[in-house]
Design brief:
Elements (H helix, E strand, L loop, with lengths): L1 E4 L4 H12 L4 E5 L6 H11 L4 E4 L5 H10 L4 E4 L6 H6 L1 H22 L3 E7 L23 H19 L4 E7 L1 E3 L18 H9 L6 E4 L11 E2 L1 E3 H15 L4 E7 L5 E2 H12 L5 E4 L8 E2 L4 H7 L7 H14 L8 H7 L1
Parallel strand pairs: 1-2, 1-4, 2-3, 4-5, 5-6, 6-11, 7-10, 8-13, 9-14
Antiparallel strand pairs: 9-12
This protein binds nicotinamide-adenine-dinucleotide and UDP-4-deoxy-4-formamido-beta-L-arabinopyranose (WQD).
The site of nicotinamide-adenine-dinucleotide has 27 residues, from helix 1, helix 5 and strand 5.
Length: 346
């Protein structure tokens, strides 16, 4: 059985679905602080198989001990964490506590239970403002400029130290570039709380009429069209990478680092134009100053994951945007039922 922490969340729910479809038994641990139980109900519906669910906090060591005593867990995918950059600047301790201390509590309980396979959700943010594109795993980890990024780098360092101390550990550090998109069914997807920080969720909410216009942050970057460039990757491709990592961790010990990206960079304006094609209409947008802390460009060299995991991203930008739009247009308010619809149902 595979334990998926944060399995009700955006990336976790897609990984749970892939695990179920590959025949694994899955246990989800999530405190639902940024997700909904509905996501897992939908995952079960798509897979036609049940998911075990425990509502709990990854920082709760004694609960974790009881969990490992009660379920035959053999490996852990650790998605549970907080991820909003701006919030992390305002509430740094909450971010360090969840992302660093939560990971430590999890590893302590795993070791106690004799479980030593861990796949960790890291981020390209650990590279900081990288000087060379594309970014390989050998690129120096930079100085992330916010507590969120710092917490991911700190957790990576904790895991390096842990693996060096005990050869039984097999740990995959998965450095995600920019996950977007949704499962092709349109039943599960990203459902941010409040005003979205990330580009695609914001564009989707403009398209569905929840927001007026997209602000394009910065048009004076040293890029061909002046807007920021990122490596957007389909969340289903990302989820599949975790299954490949699990397989690989059966064969290798210590820490392995893998970039999960497409190797292609797209500017904000390219994203807007590609999305307009999918929509069949214009997306209102205006140019605004740069967002503080943003970098000009960031894209991956994903060849290590291809060589070692036999994994590569297969879904192109049009597919990412079409799948994301299917999810958003079928679920304009995400997993929550808006009040009027709830009244209609009653
Ligand atoms: P998400 O917020 O949708 O999912 C995280 C899940 O963890 C949520 O279901 C939340 O309820 C749960 N959670 C949070 N704190 C918890 C706690 N203390 N105990 C138990 N559960 C808890 O985010 P996501 O986009 O699916 O991200 C998953 C992981 O990937 C995170 O660790 C995130 O930092 C990392 N990551 C995300 C991105 C991205 O752009 N989405 C990029 C790089 C890395
Ligand atoms: C992408 C591009 C913006 C919103 C963040 C985190 C990173 C990782 C992924 C977790 C940039 C521009 C955005 C908007 C815009 N998360 N933009 N208007 O900044 O690459 O990464 O999410 O690990 O740690 O920092 O992603 O989607 O916020 O921005 O013009 O309303 O879109 O300036 O060029 P980013 P993003």
């Amino acid at each position: 059985m595979i334990l998926v922490t944060g399995g009700a969340g955006y990336i976790g729910s897609h990984a749970v679905l892939e695990l179920l479809q590959a025949g694994h038994e899955v246990l989800v641990l999530d405190n639902l602080c940024n997700s909904s139980r509905t996501a897992l109900a939908r995952v079960e519906r798509i897979a036609g198989r049940p998911v075990q669910f425990v509502r709990g906090d990854v920082r709760n060591r004694s609960m974790l001990t009881a969990l490992f005593a009660a379920y035959p867990v053999t490996a852990v995918l650790h998605f549970a964490g907080l991820k909003a950059v701006g919030e992390s600047v305002r509430e740094p301790l909450r971010y360090y506590e969840t992302n660093v201390s939560g990971s430590i509590a999890l590893c302590q309980a795993m070791a106690e239970a004799g479980i030593f396979k861990l796949v960790f959700s890291s981020s390209a943010t650990v590279y900081g403002d990288a000087q060379q594109m594309p970014i390989t795993e050998e690129a120096p980890t930079g100085q992330p400029t916010n507590p969120y990024g710092q917490s991911k780098l700190m957790a990576e360092n904790v895991l390096h130290g842990l693996a060096a101390s005990d050869p039984r550990w097999s740990i995959g550090l998965m450095r995600y570039f920019n996950p977007i998109g949704a499962h092709e069914s349109g039943l599960i997807g990203e459902d941010p709380n409040g005003i979205p920080n990330n580009l695609l969720p914001y564009m989707l909410q403009v398209a569905v009429g929840r927001r007026k216009s997209l602000s394009v942050f910065g048009s004076d970057y040293p890029t061909p069209d002046g807007t920021g460039i990122r490596d957007y990757i389909h969340v289903v491709d990302l989820a599949k990478g975790h299954l490949k990592a699990l397989e690989r961790l059966e064969q290798v010990q210590g820490v392995s680092v893998w970039n999960l990206g497409t190797g292609l960079g797209h500017s904000v304006l390219e994203m807007v134009y590609a999305f307009e094609k999918v929509l069949g209409r214009a997306l209102p947008h205006s140019f605004e100053p740069r967002r503080p802390g943003d970098i000009a460009q960031c894209w991956s060299d994903p060849s290590k994951a291809l060589a070692e995991l036999g994994w590569r991203a297969e879904r192109d930008l049009t597919c990412m945007l079409a799948d994301a739009w299917r999810w958003q247009s079928q679920n304009p308010h995400g997993y929550s039922v808006p009040q009027k619809a709830a009244a209609d149902l009653a």
